[in-house]
Structures are given as structure tokens and as C-alpha cells.
Amino acid sequence: MIIDLSVPIENGMPYFPGDPQPKIEKIEKEDYVIHSLLLSTHTGTHVDVPFHFIRDGKKLDEIDLTRFSGKAYVLDAEGKDIHSLELPSSVDILLIYTGSSKLWKNGWTMDNYATIDEEFAKLIVRKGYKLVGIDSPSIGNSKVHRILLSNEILIVENLSSNLEKIKGKVVDFISLPLPIKGVDGSPIRAIAVVRNDETHPGK
């Protein structure tokens, strides 16, 4: 079973305060139609790479594609003390479901959403994950970003509310960025492949 974890890109969609407003414009030619897209590297479901906060960090095109996908555990953190939850070490990726994705709708100003703190970011580093994803517009403050990105842990933000369907499960997480040179991130298409009813894999 394939679960789409990406939010739709459309006119009127939410965007992070201060970022360019996404715009899709139809251009009608004599016998065909094309569209122009105005997006930022952080439009919709997207990935942050080290260069986003680390000035000498790796840019998008310098990262091996294998870093964007892998075996993932979906942590159910909605309404819970995230520090009390057990994190497995037997997966490559941690996906955090906070419930913030339920707020996603056209016109949402992204003024209220869940994040993680510096202590939890350091725990993610100790666990050795290569990527962490969250269903919020931002995983945390600048210190949280720097803790993760300085350790070359990729960050996926704005995962869709479909993440709720697979909370507590182990899945194959697949995400691919656009092949843009020299940038700090990219919109991605993120999916989860659920192969069985596998849940928490343990330590």
C-alpha cells in the first residue's frame, strides 16, 4: 500500500511567513497550455539540507540520493510528552506525527504548530538517523535546525495529515527532491510504502 505524504501545491496554499507566496499561472498558447510556477525551496512538503543553516554545509546537489529515503518509524507524538516516547535505533529515518497537519488548509497563516526542542534534536543525533520528518511547517527554532543539519541529518517539513494513518508503523519512506543545483532545499514528493503491519521495531 502506498500512502501519499505530500501536501498539494496550489494557489492559496499555506506558506511560511516571510517566504514567497506560491503562484501558479496558466499560459495559453495557440494550440497548447503551459503553466508558470513561483515557488520557494520550502514550498509545501520539502526537505532542508545543511546549506539552509550552515553556510559551508552541503547543498542539495551535493547529497547522495540514498539519503532521502529509507526504513522509517512513524512516531505518534500528538498530545504527548515527546521526551517520554521510545525511539528505535533499528531504522534510518524518524517521522514525527504531531497533529499539526490537521490545520493545513488554504489561508492558514502557520501561526500555531508543534515543534521539537533542542534536547530532542540532540537525541535524534545520538540515535543516528539520516533524516527526520515532521507534519509541521518547521521542525523547530534555528538552534534545532543547526543541531540536526550540522550533523548532516536532513529535515522534511510539512508532511501531510496522511501521516496519521501510519503512526506507530514501520514503513519504507521515499522522497525525491528536484535536481536543482546550489540550493538549500527543495519541494519533494514524499510517500510511504506499507508492506505489512509491522509496528515499533524495538531497540
Verbal overview:
The protein has 203 residues and is mainly β. It has helices spanning 118-127, 142-149; strands at 2-4, 23-28, 33-38, 46-48, 70-76, 93-97, 131-134, 154-157, 170-177, 185-193. The protein has one domain (2-9, 41-193): Putative cyclase (Glucose Oxidase, domain 1, 3-Layer(bba) Sandwich). The longest helix has 10 residues, at 118-127.
How are the SSEs placed, and which strands pair?
Layout: E1 2-4, E2 23-28, E3 33-38, E4 46-48, E5 70-76, E6 93-97, H1 118-127, E7 131-134, H2 142-149, E8 154-157, E9 170-177, E10 185-193
Parallel strand pairs: 5-6, 6-7, 7-8
Antiparallel strand pairs: 1-10, 2-3, 4-8, 4-10, 5-9, 9-10
